[in-house]
Amino acid sequence: MTAVGDELPPLSLRVTRADLVRYAGASGDFNPIHWSDRVATSAGLPGVIAHGMLTMALAGRLVTDWAGSPAAVRSYGVRFTRPVVVPDDDDGALVEISGKVTGISENDGGERIAKVAITAAFEGKTVLGRAIAEVAVRSE
């Protein structure tokens, strides 16, 4: 049974420039800070950065993998605190994601809801703040 303090299996994902191209095509966000080093650095960034919503989606994957279905997620929100800089190489940027159950409650429909605090880090620094998901879990 899910309990407060349970840790979700960690997830390590690499984000490459090819991933940024695919995400731009799917989302329609073709802002050049996501593909041009020249534009990104002229905007004061350290280099090309991943789309914030892509980073959020990757962190959300930790929860959906753990829950077994995206349909179990009742709410999910984050604040973007730091960019993920994606180098122009084959390795890309490593994003390390972890999560911990910080609360269990029951909603009006009688579902048990686990509150999950998510940590997403790039180069040892947190890139998402206040990353919280509420997930329906079995009552076992």
TrEMBL record:
Alphabetical list of CDD domains matching this protein: SAV4209_like
GO CC terms in record: fatty acid synthase complex
GO MF entry, a single one: fatty acid synthase activity
A biological process from GO: fatty acid biosynthetic process
Domain MaoC-like: 11-90
One Pfam family it belongs to: MaoC_dehydratas
SUPFAM superfamilies xrefs: Thioesterase/thiol ester dehydrase-isomerase (SSF54637)
Membrane spanning stretches: none
Gene3D superfamilies registered for this protein in UniProt: Hotdog Thioesterase
Family of this protein: Belongs to the enoyl-CoA hydratase/isomerase family.
Name used for this protein in its record: Acyl dehydratase
